[in-house]
Fold these 4 entries.
Entry 1:
Amino acid sequence: MDKLDFLLALSKRLEGLPDADQRASLDYYSEILDDLIEGGMTETEAVASLGSVEAIAEEILMDMPLTKLVKAKMKKRRRMTGIEIALLIVGFPIWLPILISLFAVALSVYVSLWAAVISLYAADLSLAAGSLAGLLGAIMMFVGGHPASALLFLGAMLVLVGLAILLFFGCNATAKGVWKLGKLTLRGIKACFVRKEGK
């Protein structure tokens, strides 16, 4: 496959995307191919070094915002028949509430996960505040002439500081995990549109 065939195949795979996005992707890969050819490769070798057109198109589509993918999918759709329109209208009282319910459940699960992360950070903050209170208690007990109680407060402060530090790392790991889960979910939704685009 030479450069022109590659760019035509890629353009066909990206049909339906806005012209500016399609042109930017084609220009980008055209420039990469030109650089490889200037470096001494033949056109065929340069195209082969990039990988398959399908993989490149899928990568480009996965990097697109979900709204652009949906618009591209809707733009390429064929006209609906009268029966399909009638079924959509008649089924509207059934499919719309189900769609809204699924969206609401997914959103509530995602919000609940972030609420759990915020709760973990609040617990960590309370442990840090407790350690500060332990330090103040130790100072007050030492000044009040109770060194044994001051040592007890000091020990409690050290335990709370250690727990706060450990929980802080756990909170960060949990927040990163929830963030990655959100990104994976979005990529999964995009993948459904990308696969449909490729068919």
Entry 2:
Amino acid sequence: MMQEQPHDTIEELLGVYALDAVDQHERRLVENHLSRCSLCRNEVDEHRDVAALLAGEVVEPQPYVWDGIISKINATEPRAVAPVVSLESKRKTPFFSSTRWVTGVAAAVVIGLSTGLITQSQRIGDLTFLITEQERQITALAATLEADPLEQAVAAALADPAAQIANLTAEGSNQTMLIVMLPDGTGYVYQSNLEALPTDATYQLWAVVDDKVISAGVLGNQPVLVPFHIDPNGLQGFVITQEVTGGVPQSEADPVVGWIKA
């Protein structure tokens, strides 16, 4: 029957045992103790949980670590073989020696794994930042593609320093209309608070060019964004009238709002 070892002696071997780094004799001593000690069994389980977490990433030790170990081994003088002694009389000597050696190796492994985990965390952080930035750019691009082409054209015209803004108003009325005009004669009705007309009526835009009134477009009964094009040479102003649906070639109606070029 195997003699029960002191609790303190077995406790020193628990970490080594959890790493499966004991010889057969030590294993039997530890397992014999574990069959009777729930406290030590719990400690072994904790050691194994930690080892399982650290095993998630294997980090290759740097070459200089192994070179240092080899140089120390080579520098150590040979020792005479010690006589065989009874385990009962010298039970602590092999335990302490084994524990110190394995503990040193385990510490080196933990340091190496910790360094690898920190490096990996930094890489993950960098990748997360790049992915977030790419997602932001994709979202911005998608928003641009989804925007109405006419709205994009109006925004570009408003951003053009060479564009001219015409504010059509009427005396004694709060109705207005804004037009942005590019140098090439491309224009956009982009803002209006004109009253909505019946479905059988429409607003019509007229350009005053060289003292002549020329139709520049039918705007509908509730203008929002309406493009048009005229010859910019000789432009003197704009006028809006209320006409029948489809517009007319010449108007006899009074202007609703208008703008005269300064």
Entry 3:
Amino acid sequence: MAKVLFFHGGGPTAVLNSGLAGALDALQSAGSDQLYYARYGIAKVLEDGIRRFPQLDRDALSRLSRSPGSAIGSGRDHLEDEDYEHIAATLADQGFSHVIGSGGNGTMDTVRRLARSCAGHGITVTGIPKTMDNDLSLTDHSPGFISAALYMAGSVREAMYDVNGLPIHVVVIESFGRNAGWITAASALASTADVPGPDMILLPETDYDEDAFLKRVEELYSAKGGVVVVASEGLHYKDGTPIVDPVFQVGRSVYFGDVSAKLSQTITKRLGIKSRSEKPGILSRSSIAWQSALDRDEAYACGQASAMAALEGRNGTMSIITRTSDEPYGSRIDVVDISDEILCERCMPSSFIDAGGFGVSDEFRSYMSPLLSKDRLGDFMTFTC
């Protein structure tokens, strides 16, 4: 009988638990009842942090799939080579036959390295993709991204209507995105016929030029009064230096300074224009109010596929989403080997960025629109005298 251990790595999302629910569903349907998890990440295996799941019926799995955050906890522990060997030996001693990890680039690298260490013990290790940053390669998009994109687009839309009603200042909204600007770019979907925008989108894939930025802000403000700017936390100058020094950094984990505050203060000091900054931060990461039905369903399916791959002995693999059509949107779930190619951080391609550097292209909108077509994006009734 299969004995399975789950773990989560990295930041929670609106559908992280959906992937977990899908995997648990597949395993229980296959007759597996020895299901465990490493509380707060795989490193806790070495600290007696393994707990057992209760039996979950359909109602419980549905509630789990619609819950934000990480029901089993997550972690960002750095592991050395010897740690993987110790974890593999510990799992073998406890009779585990399978391990399933959910996460982004760093966690999928952990899954791959753990799979190598566990292979000699007859333990299969597979992965479920999860990252709101949408920077895993080979998958059309990552579970967690659509929900975060909805949050950003919907929130920016509301801010645009606020500024349109009182057009006296520049509002700078900061978005997640260390090196990849997918979430920042998603704010482009906030535009409506009544209130188009946002007016400027600043991506980490484009070098920040302060003079060019301020010139464009001044032009927009002179023309319309109120301006909405959406900027990535990872903005940097041409030489790669962040426009605001990181407050804290350990490995891949970076806590950036307030980019929105920096830009807002620069606007006020250099242009004499009233400006304010907003930073949703983790509010945008796992908001269940903005959970996408499509995102939830695809995460669930990815969990099912990864669980079945584990039972089939497909070591060192992960599930991915392959788009099959745009109109109507369609996708399938595939399982692939975790390779250097899939772990390569995927940034916004140049074809998705507007030639002027302050927006996105129609090609990006064509990529995004089908993903949001099944979800409500803050379409509210408006009245203008």
Entry 4:
Amino acid sequence: MKNNSVTKLLCLMLLIFAWMAYPIELQAQETVHDKVDEMPVPPGGMEGLTDYMIKTLKYPKDARKAGIEGKVMVTFVVRADGTVTNSEILQGIGKSCDEEALRVVDNFGTWTPGKLDGKAVATQMVLPIQFKL
């Protein structure tokens, strides 16, 4: 019984030392702004965004078959480094269209971040995505 306790204690100590040797870095939380001096710009500007949407957005087959149309409102954050994160559906029209809208937003690429007082900041965005047959 004593050997078993010693083994458990040694394993626990080994795990603690391993954890201490490889600390998990926690990313600093960014303040997300909804009002900025300069809005974020997608790759290629608005024309680039339009081209991207035309090439990338796929109307889900089940939604097409069911005749589902409408506007999906997606919110997301353009971080200070231009990456797009935290995409969520604000207003949806059905599972497959909502998932497609999120897929497209999640794959935007790097934007030019918004600026507040001349400094790049995380900015909350809302994008309507229209599904029309």
